């Protein structure tokens, strides 16, 4: 299975490297937030109580790379729809390759792309805005980004194979991603001081709130249970469930 996963990963990575511009296009929105929203955030953080510990850049930068993984990986299902329409998926079905290998090869490609894009955002924040974060925390944050990408890409492939509609797929994604984005505290942290009680309670139900909090904790070097491990456990559970769902959908569609 490992060999088959590697072969699928190589194939998808070669296709991605033929269009490297998409990597830069994918990070344009986070870069704009960093450049145009970051300076405003800096003044707000310094003058408003209730924000998480750390500077504005250790609050905003990790949230933006989670946003990057959230959107880029969620739309990964478009590629499987293209392969489904063009007959590529049908050709893969007749091979003896493991169905979970077909999935994992693709999601690993999505994870590598998310990590590369996250690194570009982090380097920009370091060089231009003076981001100060521990190296160990940065490395751990990239692991969180990779797991987030694996989770969302697996779910995206499963949804795409179930819907099989290029028109319905983006509409469904936008309907789901917008509340997830707003309730996860990516742009503005949702804390008990800043948010009304009902909004704070709803945000706790959103699992990506805990993932964003864990990512912010790595940037400030907070490796406590409340800071890092709650979000890490939530993300690990989501990753396992998403990969299981994606693999089961691949097996069912290829039966």
TrEMBL record:
Protein name, as recorded: Transport permease protein
KW Cell membrane (keyword) present: yes
Top-rank taxon, per record: Bacteria
PANTHER family: NODULATION PROTEIN J
Membrane topology type: Multi-pass membrane protein
InterPro entries: ABC2_TM, ABC2_TM_bact-type, ABC_2_transport, Nod_factor_ABC_transporter
One annotated GO molecular function: ABC-type transporter activity
Pfam families named in the record: ABC2_membrane (PF01061)
Annotated localization: Cell membrane; Membrane
Similarity comment text for this entry: Belongs to the ABC-2 integral membrane protein family.
Transmembrane segments: 21-39, 59-81, 107-129, 135-163, 175-195, 228-247
Keyword Membrane applies: yes
């Amino acid at each position: 299975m490992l060999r088959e996963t590697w072969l699928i990963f190589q194939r998808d990575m070669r296709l991605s490297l033929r269009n490297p511009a998409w990597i830069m296009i994918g990070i344009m929105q986070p870069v704009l937030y960093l450049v145009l929203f970051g300076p405003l955030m800096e003044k707000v953080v310094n003058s408003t109580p209730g924000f998480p510990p750390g500077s504005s850049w250790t609050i905003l930068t990790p949230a933006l790379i989670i946003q990057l993984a959230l959107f880029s990986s969620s739309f990964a299902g478009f590629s499987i729809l293209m392969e489904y329409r063009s007959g590529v998926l049908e050709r893969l079905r007749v091979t003896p390759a493991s169905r979970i290998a077909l999935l994992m090869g693709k999601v690993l490609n999505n994870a590598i792309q998310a990590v590369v894009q996250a690194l570009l955002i982090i380097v920009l924040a370091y060089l231009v805005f003076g981001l100060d974060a521990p190296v160990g925390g940065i490395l751990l944050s990239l692991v969180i980004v990779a797991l987030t990408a694996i989770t969302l890409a697996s779910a995206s492939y499963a949804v795409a194979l179930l819907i099989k509609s290029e028109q319905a797929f983006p509409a469904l994604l936008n309907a789901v991603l917008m509340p997830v984005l707003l309730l996860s505290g990516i742009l503005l942290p949702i804390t008990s001081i800043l948010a009304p009680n009902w909004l704070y309670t709803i945000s706790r139900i959103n699992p990506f709130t805990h993932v964003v909090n864990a990512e912010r904790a790595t940037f400030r070097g907070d490796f406590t249970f409340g800071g890092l491990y709650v979000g890490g456990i939530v993300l690990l559970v989501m990753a396992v469930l998403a990969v299981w769902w994606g693999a089961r959908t691949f097996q069912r569609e290829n039966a």
